[in-house]
Amino acid sequence: PARSKFYVRDPPNDKPDWLKVGLTLGTAAFLWFYLIKQHNEDVLEYKRRNGLE
Question: Which chain regions cross the lipid bilayer (predicted)?
Answer without folding.
Answer: none
